[in-house]
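Dear colleague,

Thank you for sharing your sequence with our group. We've completed the structure prediction you requested, and as agreed, I am returning the results in plain text so they can be pasted directly into your records. Please verify that the sequence below matches your submission; if there's any discrepancy, let me know and we will rerun it promptly.
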Amino acid sequence: MAKRRLGKGIDALIQGQELDEETRQASVVAVPMERLRANPEQPRKQFSEEHLSELTESVREKGVIQPILAEEADDGTYLIIAGERRFRAAQRAGLSSVPVLPRRFSHEEKLEIALIENLQREDLNPIDEAEAYRSLMESASLTQDELARRLGLNRSTVANALRLLRLPEDLKAEIAEGRLSPGHARAILSVDTEEGRARLAQRIRTEALSVRQAEELAGTLSSAAAKRGRAGTGGADGEKTSPQKSLELRELEERLLDTLGTKVVVKGSHSKGRIEIEYYSLDDLERIAGIISGDTGDDAGGE
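Please find the predicted C-alpha cells below.
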C-alpha cells in the first residue's frame, strides 16, 4: 500500500526546519535508553510484531540510522515525539543509547507530528487513525475541514474516519484487528436501528459478506425497519410503504455521504422523495451548509 504524504510532512512542523543537513546532524545527541520515555498520546495503540521484529534485526545490524525526534524535559528525560518504533526496536536489540534530535513543540504540534509519522511510515489501523483525528481536532479546536487542509487530506477522508467512532466498542475492536473493513463499517452505520446494525454485523461475520453485499443487506434491513415503524403507527399519515431502495439511489446516497461527510438517507423513489442529513453540532451544521452552498471557507485565510 502506498504511503500517504500528508501536508508538508514532519519537517514542516519542526522548529528550525530551515537548518541544513550538516547543522541538523550537529544538533543530534546520543541519549541513554533509560532517559527516553514513550509519548502517552501516541496514536498507535498496537504495534505489528512482524514489522517490529524486522526493524529490530535492522537495528542490530546497522543501528538507529534516523534520529528519534524528542523533547527534553526539565528532569533530563526525553519525551518521544516521533520514532517510538525505532526506540522499541533499539530496546529489543539491546542498545545502550540512541541518536536523538531534541526540539520544543506545542501540544498540538506533538499530536500532529505523531499522527503524520504513523500515517506516512506505517498505516494506522482505522480506529487508531480516527481517534488521532478526533484528539487533534479537540486539542487544536479544528473543524473537519481545517484538519483535512492541515494534513493535506480530502475532508471526506477525515469525515468517514470519524464516523467509525460511532460504532459500539466490540465492532471498533473488530475493525482495529482487521476482521471488519471500514467499508463494512459504513454499511453497518447506514442501518437506522441498533438491532439492525447488530444483525448485519453478525451476517457479515458468519457469511463473509463482501462490502457490496453488506450494503445491499443494509438497504433491506433499513427498508424492513421502516415498514415495521409505519405499521406500528397504523399508517395514520397515509404514507405508502416505500419499495426497497434501488441501486441507483443507494449509489447517490453514498455520493452525498462522501461529499457531506455525515450520514445521509435518501427516502422515496426515482420520481419523488426526500433527503435526511444528520449533524452533530452547530459547527457541523455550519460546515454542511457551507458545502451545500459552495462556501467552504477556503477564501477565509486558512493555513
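Summary note from our side: The chain has a mean pLDDT of 76.

Kind regards,
the structure core
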